[in-house]
């Protein structure tokens, strides 16, 4: 909080003429989200200092029976005089003001209870130890739901979002059921995560998500948590996970990837940047690293004039001279084994990110095709719909668009209806016709809120736009099928939305069928993206009933989700290969 805002708070509190209370940390924390003593000046608060940071220190008192009530408290102070006055292990008594503090950087963050303007710090004894609560032994996070306020068919993904605010409702906590309540009930306390396994990559601040040795659901073969439906039929937001922040002693966390294991982490629970963090005392060390080998797809071409293989890959802003173009080509040649048709997204124009009015991407696509040809025996042709300059988002000046690469020896383009998203009609060597639609729906980038934020269900940025886009596709397919009910239609691309947001896909009901579902891929292995604590599926392929009734196969090739290092990835999305029969 900027100093000016704190001054304002102080002035407001002054006008309330606070009375002095004597209180325990448990009294200050209380069983609800907000403190019963908010705004009050409190004296004679006692506890043992468990940790120090650059902006304060943590005190903890003896455990209490009520698991809803935290016995830890963050004392905010940037005064070196205050920070130097206490040492970890000191039992102290102090006075201060109770504040439910919300970081001013984002109005969707939760408030957290802290003790401000500490005075009269008295050291009662030194060298005391506080035994950390061992998660998974003493208490375990819930495995299914995030918040009691995520009501609706799709749980935390229910549309419309933002039906209530945690801090306004100020319910008493249900830590056995909801993760936001669970972590809030441990706010400021010392905890240990035994046997942590990393479930994502580190972010740019070196923070990373883990789960520990406790019960977990929706665990995939790599060790991560997949966004899928829980046993109650509601999307499982992966509450059995926690983010590890920057170490309190200034050491640097190791870099992470999905499936790495580290030694036990001990630290304090602190809400910041939209999540309940554990701030470790010191950086953990890596104990094991998963096998970096990603097997290539087994779904190869079958020369029967009826079978078609389709790859789907969002290549993350690729221009003709992008450093990752050779890697994308190599993924397509070696891991995807050159599918007959590639549905590509995020192809930049011929001048890449340079904003010079160029919109054609034939140089980009030629370069990609040439790079694939140099590593395989396939020379792809391509087709694209050239967008209007500056209209389609992505990297500035790049004019990203979906495009097709196709193997002219396997399929020929019958027509290209020249619209976005690209609709194409194809013919196989035996003359069988089928249609594809390649799309890239609006990104979630802006307007979203964290899964542990104040608005419930959390804000899902641009979901209304994506719902409209799905409707447009559904109407188009409906029209096509009304003319030709047995048409083979394949719709694929980056939908930027999970199928667990059922409302968003309602227009597809009984019209288009997701290949993962048709091919019966285990739900926990359905993912193309790693974000925060979850592996999730933003990229999908749907088929019409004529295709669904024949044999459908799909494989997600985790070249990027399984990367050993966030920076060696070709793209942030995994590609997939689908094999269908069109006659
Ligand atoms: C704080 O503790 C001291 C010493 O025990 C006592 O004199 C004082 O009244 C207490 N303050 C409050 C507000 O209870
Ligand atoms: C929040 O709930 C607690 C416990 O019921 C209550 O003491 C407190 O006054 C409430 N705070 C607000 C701001 O509603
Ligand atoms: C300061 O702390 C001491 C020791 O706990 C207590 O006796 C005294 O009342 C406190 N004074 C104020 C003004 O809080
Ligand atoms: C606390 O422990 C340290 C080191 O173990 C020792 O130097 C110091 O004297 C102890 N302080 C007290 C008050 O016992
Ligand atoms: C969410 O709801 C709150 C309370 O109704 C409102 O103040 C806020 O503007 C809403 N946020 C968004 C992004 O709609
Ligand atoms: C993590 O990776 C970055 C490159 O992205 C590198 O600069 C940094 O040194 C690495 N950190 C550690 C601890 O290896
Ligand atoms: C891509 O094509 C352009 C123009 O044909 C050429 O100048 C450039 O070197 C090519 N880049 C790569 C990586 O092949
Ligand atoms: C790209 O298209 C332009 C205009 O149609 C054409 O002049 C140029 O030769 C094409 N370049 C490549 C590499 O296909
Ligand atoms: C490549 O595709 C275009 C249509 O996009 C077509 O005009 C051209 O003949 C094709 N070339 C080959 C070699 O198939």
From TrEMBL:
Molecular function, one GO term: catalytic activity
Domain Endonuclease/exonuclease/phosphatase: 313-573
Keyword annotations of the record: Signal
Protein name: Endonuclease/exonuclease/phosphatase domain-containing protein
Signal peptide per UniProt: 1-22
Species whose genome carries this gene: Phanerochaete carnosa (strain HHB-10118-sp)
CDD domains reported for this sequence: YhcR_OBF_like (cd04486)
Organism taxonomic ancestry: Eukaryota, Fungi, Dikarya, Basidiomycota, Agaricomycotina
